[in-house]
Amino acid sequence: MLRDITIGQYYPADSVIHKLDPRTKLMATMVYILSLFLFRSLAGFAAVTLGLFLVILLSKVPFGYMVKGLKAIVVILLITVIFNLFLTPGEPLISFWKLRITEEGLKNAGFMAVRLIYLILGSSILTLTTTPNQLTDGLEKSLRPLNKIHVPVHEIAMMMSIALRFIPILIEETDKIMKAQLARGADFESGNLVKKAKAMVPLLVPLFISAFRRANDLALAMEARCYHGGDGRTKMKPLKYKGIDGIAYLLVGGYFAAVILLRRFL
Amino acid sequence: MNFIEARKLVHEYIRRDEDDNVESILTALDGVDLDVKEGEFVAILGHNGSGKSTLAKHLNVLLKASSGTLWVNGKDTKDESSLWDIRQSAGMVFQNPDNQIIASVVEEDVAFGPENIGVPTSEIWKRVERSLKSVGMIQYREHSPNRLSGGQKQRVAIAGVMAMEPKCIVLDEPTAMLDPNGRREVLDAVGQLNKEKGVTIILITHYMEEVIRADRVYVMDNGKVVMHGTPRAIFSQVDALKSYRLDVPQITLLAYELRKAGVPVPEGILTRQELVEALCRLF
Ligand SMILES: Nc1ncnc2c1ncn2[C@@H]1O[C@H](COP(=O)(O)OP(=O)(O)OP(=O)(O)O)[C@@H](O)[C@H]1O
Ligand SMILES: [Mg+2]
Hints:
The structure holds 2 protein chains of 2 kinds.
Chain A: H1 16-19, H2 22-36, H3 42-59, H4 63-68, H5 74-87, E1 92-96, E2 99-102, H6 103-129, H7 132-142, H8 153-183, H9 193-224, H10 243-265
Antiparallel strand pairs in A: 1-2
Helix pairs in contact in A: 2-6, 2-10, 3-6, 3-10, 5-6, 7-8, 8-9
Chain B: E1 4-16, E2 22-36, E3 41-46, H1 52-59, E4 67-72, E5 75-76, H2 83-89, E6 90-93, H3 106-116, H4 121-134, H5 150-162, E7 168-172, H6 180-197, E8 200-205, E9 216-221, E10 224-229, H7 231-235, H8 238-243, H9 250-260, H10 272-282
Parallel strand pairs in B: 3-8, 3-9, 6-7, 7-8
Antiparallel strand pairs in B: 1-2, 1-4, 4-5, 9-10
Helix pairs in contact in B: 3-4, 3-5, 4-5, 5-6
Bound molecules: adenosine-5'-triphosphate and magnesium ion.
């Protein structure tokens, strides 16, 4: 199940989107997410759709691959749609038993579903076309001003990149421990929720112990390699804006203006 | 002055209870003297809990001595201001390859050390390339460390240390978690760095076979250095080694048993070749 999540997985390809600076992509993603909550008419919807699919095409990531990421939100999607469909007050279109569907409900449910799906698709473009390292570098640099108000930006970025490195290792380890406990007759499948939760204890305890040991070892190894925070640190791959980033900023600006104008006038 | 000089080095692990009262004191290093010249290959042997890792951590100033003195690269480890100099000149490789690789791409991990000491970007690229080449891992530079074998991961870790251009590398049981192939890969890489680049090597190990390459061997027991000398001198004292719960290489043991049984082979035979020659001379 953990393998189904495509968010956070890099898809290597040779495209313009891959070549953009991560800061540009972060900013564009923010603008895009904002625009999702701004449109309220079909014309706005069309503009957002156009923008999204243009970028998907440019990114050279197969559409099918991206859609796989939606599996993770099917349940949330269904709940949102059902609630919006049945609980929005207004003129009833169809009613049966105690339930009724209103025109507003239909519209709300449709837009909410589209927003959620677009949200996942849009943000997965970011993670599919940007390596985790670029992403954390981009975050670190974009958020650097927050250092002034004592937000430990470098440390947060370092934590994120270490987490990304160790997630696969810990997943593998969970698998190993699970098999070891299964071999000793542990049962993770049957019983009610409480029983299942209890069955997790012999899984979680060794996992936590090993995670703490790893953290300890890693801290020592980092210190031995002269790590002492972000001060005076240089980079092997420093971020640099290029020509295409300028063009991208202009296009994103144009897109945002269009969405706002459409919200006003259409 | 030697590259590393330890005099009467003592380290105590002090356990305290909640009210900060001393509950128990464990003397992990008990008056250790150690001398390592630049370019030497020194091995440190010892049973579990004899204090080898504690000593290694001192060489990198990850621990501070309770008493005694330790100079690394002509600098006193008590001096706070030379901390980063010492860590840069005496790099450290640990036992578990997974827990010392920081980045998700091989070359970025190798760059981690130079980045920390503020090496300019263009120089980092050169160093990364040079050190990955020196351990034979250059073709994996863009791989994820998760897909490498244990021996390969350990060589990446060594490259990460090499990229800081240290004079000395301390390796704390670098092969303990590896299969025989991985073990050979790592030892070959280490031997090569020592021979071709003149890097001082301090190898801590459980495996007697790995000690044969060393110029000198220290044997530790209970926090003390109990024997030191050339591998040949050390391995000719089979009884003493056994009393410190250490094994000797199988060939040496065979020669020892032969001597005990009255066959006049010389003491301290280390390799199969030597034993064959010694036996041929007899008959
Ligand atoms: N952080 C610690 N706190 C308290 N005691 C410790 C600590 N680390 C090690 N010790 C104790 O110090 C002694 C020496 O430990 P050390 O790890 O240096 O031995 P070692 O020779 O490296 O053993 P091994 O072969 O198992 O790695 C042991 O008795 C150990 O239990
Ligand atoms: Mg140890």
